[in-house]
Write a structure and sequence with these properties.
By secondary structure, the chain is mostly helical. It contains six helices and three strands; from the N terminus they run ααααααβββ. It has a three-stranded antiparallel sheet with strand order 1-2-3, covered by helices on one side. Strand 2 and strand 3 form a beta hairpin. The N and C termini lie far apart (75 Å).
Length: 232
């Protein structure tokens, strides 16, 4: 970690590398690792909660490290991350969340369909689906193989198919089909999106009224908007 932190522009640091890397032992009297991380996460959240004054002192919240208001430090941190396109505090090295969503969808579909089996015929895949269905992400991670492994080593992955119709640009994009377990063969490719949806214009209802027509004055009609301003 030290070498990676000081690799860029090493000559600018000289003998003092603390601006890039500083390692200290945890002091229990100051807090735990979780509280230390929470402090930095709190400095990079939306500053809307810090625009109000501290109810105890009646003054703005102040960052003890810099002496500036918390609202100002948060805005600076967000601007810095946006400028350098840094996605802060995002978990990495874990199994795909899309597979998690598709497994939960599959479990719900199996529960609603009386003719569907209650369990998958492969114990490992069924255990992963069960973990996702009950909402235990930790178990889902472990059943998938753990963290920091190549994506092609996860047992269950997202299955895709090519769309039947071209989009507005004449392309045939990839869309989600369901889940698959490539290491177990094509048999364990399961569709979770059996229906196809598309946006279509609402058809106009033909006016089948016949006979001589005439204008009606004063009859109630449906409002053009959600608010009817008629005073009567």
């Amino acid at each position: 970690m030290r070498e990676a932190a000081i690799k860029s522009d090493r000559h600018e640091l000289g003998d003092d590398i603390s601006p890039r890397f500083k390692c200290e032992k945890i002091d229990p009297e100051k807090g735990t690792p979780a509280s230390y991380i929470a402090t930095y996460i709190g400095k990079n959240l939306d500053a809307s909660a810090f625009h109000n004054n501290d109810p105890k002192t009646g003054k703005p919240y102040v960052d003890e490290e810099s002496g500036k208001t918390m609202a100002e430090t948060v805005e600076n941190a967000i601007a810095w991350a946006s400028l350098h396109r840094i996605r802060q505090f995002q978990f990495f090295g874990i199994p795909p969340r899309q597979v998690w969503r598709e497994l939960r969808r599959l479990a719900s579909q199996m529960e609603r369909n009386p003719a569907s089996p209650k369990h998958l015929d492969h114990d490992d895949i069924d255990a992963i689906m069960a973990a996702a269905d009950v909402g235990c992400f930790a178990t889902y991670i472990m059943k998938q193989g753990g963290v920091l492994i190549p994506r092609n080593q996860y047992l269950v992955r997202t299955a895709y198919e090519t769309a039947d119709e071209a989009n507005d640009y004449g392309e045939f994009p990839q869309r989600i089909y369901g889940i698959c377990a490539p290491s177990l063969g094509e048999r364990y490719t399961i569709c979770t999106h059996p229906d196809e949806w598309k946006l279509v214009k609402k058809e106009t209802t033909p006016d089948n009224r016949t006979g001589e027509g005439f204008d009606l004055q004063g009859d109630p009609v449906a409002p053009w908007t959600r608010g009817n301003n008629c005073p009567r």
